[in-house]
Amino acid sequence: MTIEWHYTVEENLGVLSVAGYLGPEAAHRFTGAVGWVLARGTGPVIVDLSELRNWSSEGQLALVDAARRLTAAGRPLELAAIPADGSLVPPGDCPPIPVHADLTAARTAHGARPGQGDEAERRNWRTTGWPAAQDHDA
Fold first, then answer.
1. pTM attached to this predicted model
2. Which of 60, 62, 90, 91 is the most exposed place for a label (fewest CB within 10 A)?
3. 23 near 1, Cβ under 8 Å?
4. Residue 137: which pLDDT band, with cuts at 50, 70 and 90?
5. Angle ∠(19,14,26) on CA atoms, nearest 5
């Protein structure tokens, strides 16, 4: 089992939505998605986990690694809607990872709203398995 992802670049904000199970087999796919994020966009990155069914310890470590990589590039990572039965306990040397109840709360913390900004400036990328119906102007 693996993950699917969808990345949206908005004005000074990136949203990486992840669906599926972030387990040992999917950690490398998530790492690749973060590489994609690093190459496209600027500003903070919100990882939306509202469609994530669960994660393993390897999946959590992949998130911690993403926080380190993004912070090193000057782009803080924040989480929205972590799995109900999971809690992220990063090691002491990890950059702070703010956790928001949902994507709306995360956007609000940045003064952003769905659909805000010029449509011509908004860009989207997704894995082929991400259903088009789930493309949100999230």
1. 0.83
2. 91
3. yes
4. very low
5. 30
Average pLDDT over residues 23-41: 92
Q: What are the structure tokens assigned to 88, written together?
A: 């992220």
CA distances for 97 relative to 17, 23, 46, 65, angstroms: 16, 20, 10, 11
pLDDT digits (tens, 9 = 90+) for 54-78: 888 899 899 999 999 999 999 999 9
- Look up tokens 């796919």; give the residue: 29
Distance between CA 24 and CA 82 in Å, rounded?
Answer: 17
Distance CA 36, CA 88 (A): 23
Distance CA 15, CA 83 (A): 17
Cβ atoms of 45 and 14 closer than 8 Å = yes
Rounded Cα distance between 124 and 122, Å, is 7
